[in-house]
Amino acid sequence: LPPEQFTSASAVVTIEGDDAHHLQRVMRAEVGEQVICSNGVDREALVRITQLEKGCVIAEVVEELAMTAEAAVEVWVAQSLPKGDKMETVIQKGTEIGAARFLPFLSERTVVQYDAKKEAKRTERWQKIAKEAAEQAHRNRVPQVDAVYTWKQLLQLAKEADAAWICYEKEDGQQLRPAIQAAAAAGKLGSGKRVLLAVGPEGGFTEQEIEQAEAAGFRSVSLGARILRTETAAMVGLTCLFYETGE
Ligand code: SAM
């Protein structure tokens, strides 16, 4: 439910739109049944359905639920816009694994056409994919999907992170695992901390981009000796991170 519709004070909730349709038409919900309601941000509760109307479900809160499915560290996945529907895969799988936010961006070798007019609709679709994946994964929060960033804007974001890593297949010094371990030892992966993980497009980052990223505060990291497809790299990075933090 939208946060403004399910605030910390609501004792009764009104479910409308797609969620009401899903409950009534797909789940065949009936009065008296209990379901979990989340505002995707800071509240999750068990609610009992009290009324079913056309396109609208009314329910009362039975019990507050602890939000235990979220990782302590917040991981932002910055993904250079990939071709076709790969961004959808990144968002869907990344949400299941535990990413907190998705930041699509443009880099020198991004090949996909960027159309500002179609931008809002596309972001809306991606946000819906994040919502559905979060529900499927029983997440407490729905990851935010941002509008497309420029390369310069992405570089600025490194400053907002406690650790910022840029995945570079030609990196032969720093592996992701020791970078994660060092960040954990420095207290950068605990509650309230933020990690930014950047992945390049199909053609990879240029050497110049890696230099610029490092100057902006990113650390170039390798995900291993094998070259991963762009849509695989974020999944591997997220999995390694949560494996190491035990989440
Ligand atoms: N065009 C490059 C090549 O053929 O060598 C490969 C680019 S790869 C398909 C796309 C992105 O995935 C890269 O920009 C990087 O961010 C990430 N990536 C893939 N494999 C990686 C690895 N082994 N280590 C670090 N990053 C990797």
From TrEMBL:
Q: Keywords of this protein's UniProt record, alphabetized?
A: Cytoplasm, Methyltransferase, rRNA processing, S-adenosyl-L-methionine, Transferase
Q: What is its EC number?
A: 2.1.1.193
Indicate the segments forming the Ribosomal RNA small subunit methyltransferase E PUA-like domain, all copies: 15-61
Please give a single GO biological process term from the UniProt record. Answer: methylation
Q: Where is the Ribosomal RNA small subunit methyltransferase E methyltransferase domain?
A: 70-239
Question: Where is the protein localized?
Answer: Cytoplasm
Domain of life of the native organism: Bacteria
Q: Name one GO molecular function term.
A: methyltransferase activity
Catalysed reactions, as listed in the record = uridine(1498) in 16S rRNA + S-adenosyl-L-methionine = N(3)-methyluridine(1498) in 16S rRNA + S-adenosyl-L-homocysteine + H(+)
Q: Which InterPro entries match?
A: Alpha/beta_knot_MTases, PUA-like_sf, RsmE, RsmE_MTase_dom, RsmE_PUA-like, tRNA_m1G_MTases_N
Q: Briefly state the protein's biological role.
A: Specifically methylates the N3 position of the uracil ring of uridine 1498 (m3U1498) in 16S rRNA. Acts on the fully assembled 30S ribosomal subunit.
Homology family:
Belongs to the RNA methyltransferase RsmE family.
Put simply, this protein is called Ribosomal RNA small subunit methyltransferase E
